[in-house]
From TrEMBL:
Name of the protein in its database record: TIGR03086 family protein
Signal sequence extent: none
One Pfam family matching this protein: MDMPI_N
Classification via InterPro entries: CHP03086, DinB/YfiT-like, Maleyloyr_isom, MDMPI_metal-binding
Mycothiol-dependent maleylpyruvate isomerase metal-binding domain residues: 10-131
Spans annotated as Disordered: 167-193
Domain of life: Bacteria
Gene3D superfamilies named in the record: dinb family like domain
Alphabetized NCBIfam families for the sequence: maleylpyruvate isomerase family mycothiol-dependent enzyme (TIGR03083), TIGR03086 family metal-binding protein (TIGR03086)
Entry's Gene Ontology molecular function annotations: metal ion binding
Length: 193
């Protein structure tokens, strides 16, 4: 399975979760302490163009200094998130997206494969966040989960230094691959609202 196919397969469960979020769930807490459901959807919309641009080797700065400075969830937020995720999948479905270097909204040049791995991780981890917050269950294919685990293992320390991940949550080695990913990102797989 190539990275280009994994992106679409990582996005599919997230899209299903988003389609099933009810408007009265937008204020529900998520496993990301700083985000409720609305703010997490806003986060996906905020960073989506930058992640899409990274695949095309275009620097697309986010619309503000932080995702808390804008609210992009007005109107038909579900359709907007779905459209943005489909654009990300389309952009990362091209083999050239994974080659060479790129930028993720800022001036720092990064290996494109590293950014692509971060995109896979975002799709799966935030899919889980939204699923847990809204009483749904995220189903991730084994090969997708394995690839995300490999990527998060490589970037966990950097993610914690950047504040993207919390302190590692110990998870038994016998746990599912997704649960081990969650622990690496600072999430408790047993989290409940």
């Amino acid at each position: 399975m190539s990275d280009t196919q994994l992106t679409a397969r990582a996005a599919t469960p997230l899209l299903e979760i988003i389609r099933n979020i009810k408007p009265d769930q937008l204020d529900a807490p998520t496993p990301c302490a700083e985000y409720d459901v609305r703010r997490l959807l806003n986060h996906l919309l905020f960073w989506g163009p930058s992640l899409e641009g990274a695949a095309r080797k275009e620097t697309v700065p986010p619309p503000a200094e932080s995702d808390s400075a804008v609210d992009l969830t007005g109107g038909d937020w579900a359709a907007d998130v779905e459209t943005q995720l489909n654009r990300i999948v389309d952009a990362w479905s091209k083999p050239r997206a994974w080659a060479g270097t790129t930028h993720m909204g800022g001036p720092t040049e990064l290996p494109a494969a590293l950014v692509g791995g971060m995109v896979l991780s975002e799709l799966v981890v935030h899919g889980w966040d939204l699923a847990k917050a809204t009483g749904q269950h995220l189903v991730v294919a084994d090969d997708v989960a394995g690839e995300v685990h490999k990527e998060v293992t490589k970037t966990a320390t950097l993610g914690r230094e950047m504040g993207a991940y919390g302190p590692e949550v110990p998870v038994p080695a016998s746990s599912s691959t997704v649960d081990r990913v969650l622990g690496l990102t600072g999430r408790d797989p047993a989290w409940t609202p």
